[in-house]
Write a structure and sequence with these properties.
By secondary structure, the chain is α/β, with parallel strands linked by helices. The protein has helices spanning 12-23, 39-49, 63-72, 87-92, 94-115, 148-166, 200-208, 236-249, 269-280, 304-310, 318-331; strands at 3-7, 27-32, 54-57, 77-80, 119-125, 171-177, 179-181, 215-218, 230-231, 233-235, 255-261, 267-268, 286-289, 298-299. The strands form four sheets. The protein has a seven-stranded parallel β-sheet, with helices on both faces. The two termini are 35 Å apart.
């Protein structure tokens, strides 16, 4: 049984990954500052699995606190989710994003090095590709992010590569994932955005429960089949299992390796709206609005490297993603606070 430290483990993707880790027999230690998450998610994970999570309320900017975590626990590997994550907010508060995400990661890597723990799975993002040079996106595509949030992911990837080149023994997986949606089939854990959702699916589902009047679709004149933006939506449980696959293969992958986690399928906003409306059982209201600055026409993955290197591929289809997300939203219209 390995002991895995999960930073940001109370968040959306983090909590689903913690659940999968516990079900796979791992011991899990979570650090989270609860800035954009809830400890209730971990209580529900414990109830679902019948196992306990060692939780520490800690900010990664607290280097001394991190050192104490590694002294208290014999950590075998780290999955690193913690960080600020809103693209729009990052353009308004760039210094906050650079300081929090990059400095926090530096502290984590320094604490890992001091403790002799050299296996890391990092939560990167498809935002590192910026406006894609081509689709589907392979890991060899140009990296040219268009916002501070994406830039922090790109800088951290570079830091990890430089560290792995400078020191032997590191095994770092840089998982670039696309658009996570859905929820655990129990409906007990799911996405609980603070304020107005930044992402499509939680916004649609808040329309479905009456918290929002209608869905804004930003642009209907993109160079796509139906004029709306095309993205690669991946079920959060598939994504969580991708992290376990990365952990299992990490010993065979020295250095730092970037891997896309996506379905490989591009789904338009209107297609996702139709699937969500079908899951809810009625046509949900929407309206078209002007394009937002920084948006792009299409972004979806070539996920073949994940299949070849990790033996992982996505299994859930769009209908299942929407059904599971709706089950969560119906049961938790106000998220964990309800």
């Amino acid at each position: 049984m390995s002991t895995i430290l999960v930073t940001g483990g109370a968040g959306y993707i983090g909590s689903h990954t913690v659940l999968e880790l516990l079900n796979a027999g791992h011991r899990v230690v979570v650090v989270d500052n609860l800035d954009n998450s809830s400890a209730e998610s971990l209580r529900r994970v414990e109830a679902l699995t019948g196992k306990t999570v060692e939780f520490h309320l800690l900010d990664l900017l607290d280097r001394g606190g991190l050192d104490l975590i590694f002294k208290r626990h014999r950590i075998d590997a780290v999955i690193h989710f913690a960080g600020l994550k809103a693209v729009g907010e990052s353009t308004q508060q760039p210094l906050r994003y650079y300081h929090n995400n990059i400095t926090g990661t530096l502290h984590l890597l320094e604490a890992m090095k001091a403790a002799g723990c050299k296996t890391l799975v990092f939560s990167s993002s498809a935002t590192v590709y910026g406006d894609p040079e081509r689709v589907p996106l392979t890991e060899g595509c140009a990296l040219r992010t268009t916002n501070p949030y994406g830039a922090t992911k790109l800088w951290i990837e570079g830091i990890c590569r430089d560290l792995a080149k400078a020191e032997s023994g590191w095994h770092i997986l840089l998982l670039r994932y696309f658009n996570p949606v859905g929820a655990h089939e129990s409906g007990r854990i799911g996405e609980d955005p603070q304020g107005i959702p930044n992402n499509l699916m939680p916004f649609i589902m808040q329309v479905a429960v009456g918290k929002r009047e209608f869905l804004n679709i930003w642009g209907n004149d993109w160079a796509t089949p139906d004029g709306t933006g095309v993205r690669d939506y991946i079920h959060v449980v598939d994504l969580a299992k991708g992290h376990l696959a990365a952990l299992a293969k990490a010993p065979e992958l020295p250095g730092a390796t970037a891997i896309n986690l996506g379905t490989g399928n591009g789904i338009s906003v209107l297609d996702m709206w139709r699937a969500a409306s079908a899951a809810v059982g009625r046509e949900l209201p929407y309206r078209f609005a002007p394009r937002r600055p920084g948006d792009i026409a299409a972004c979806y993955a070539d996920a073949s490297l994940a299949k070849n290197l990790l033996g992982w591929s996505a299994h859930y289809n769009v209908a299942q993603m929407c059904t599971d997300h709706w089950r969560w939203q119906q049961a938790n219209p106000n998220g964990y606070s309800g």
